[in-house]
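Customer escalation, tier 2.

The customer says the design service returned an amino acid string that "doesn't look like it belongs to this structure." They asked us to rerun it and document both sides in this ticket. The original structure tokens are below, unchanged.
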């Protein structure tokens, strides 16, 4: 089958776009408002986009609480979602009014960042402390702005729980990372295999 995205006439029960771009890491974003309120929300549009400098991004449909907080404070954390925390991650996605603490709702420990004024999940195996570098609305081919707000942040500090380190590497079989698939589906990335990049002749 083939269809054009301007009509989106795919004939399927649901739009397959996000199912094709999968698996996607989950951006479990911790932030703090100017009023001191804490927020924790998962985003399925999240990824690392640069290694030098270390940059990550998350994108929300509309100006949600996380983007608002980052605009106010310039900081956020990205928390590693492992299989043992996936239910709590899902619970933190609940739609509640601004100022309600999702850390408390999900039964998680909020710890203040070492270098940034933003909270992180104390139970997470790994955490990225980030300072915002850009907040923007991407454009389409017609120049029209997307409804999404994209936040780019530079990683300035990294927390790692040593229980997931084996042979001086992060062991994904121990960490059991969870990724977002399409629809309401998730996957676990603990089935790991290694391939060495081929050398040019």
């Amino acid at each position: 089958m083939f269809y054009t995205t301007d009509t989106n006439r795919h004939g399927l029960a649901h739009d397959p776009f996000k199912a094709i771009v999968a698996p996607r890491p989950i951006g479990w974003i911790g932030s703090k408002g100017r009023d001191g309120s804490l927020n924790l929300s998962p985003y399925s549009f999240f990824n690392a986009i640069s290694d030098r400098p270390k940059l990550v991004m998350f994108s929300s449909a509309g100006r949600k609480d996380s983007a608002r907080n980052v605009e106010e404070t310039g900081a956020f954390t990205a928390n590693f979602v492992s299989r043992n925390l996936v239910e709590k991650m899902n619970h933190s996605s609940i739609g509640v009014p601004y100022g309600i603490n999702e850390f408390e709702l999900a039964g998680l420990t909020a710890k203040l960042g070492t270098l940034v004024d933003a909270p992180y999940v104390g139970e997470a195996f790994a955490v990225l402390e980030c300072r915002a570098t850009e907040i923007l609305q991407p454009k389409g081919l017609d120049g029209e702005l997307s409804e999404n707000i994209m936040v780019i942040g530079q990683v300035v500090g990294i927390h790692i729980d040593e229980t997931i380190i084996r042979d001086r590497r992060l062991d994904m079989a121990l960490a059991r990372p969870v990724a977002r698939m399409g629809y309401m589906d998730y996957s676990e990335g603990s089935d790991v295999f290694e391939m060495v990049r081929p050398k040019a002749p």
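Tier 2 assessment: The sequence is consistent with the input. Residues 109 and 156 are 21 Å apart (CA to CA). The two ends are 38 Å apart (CA to CA). Sent an explanation to the customer and offered a walkthrough call.
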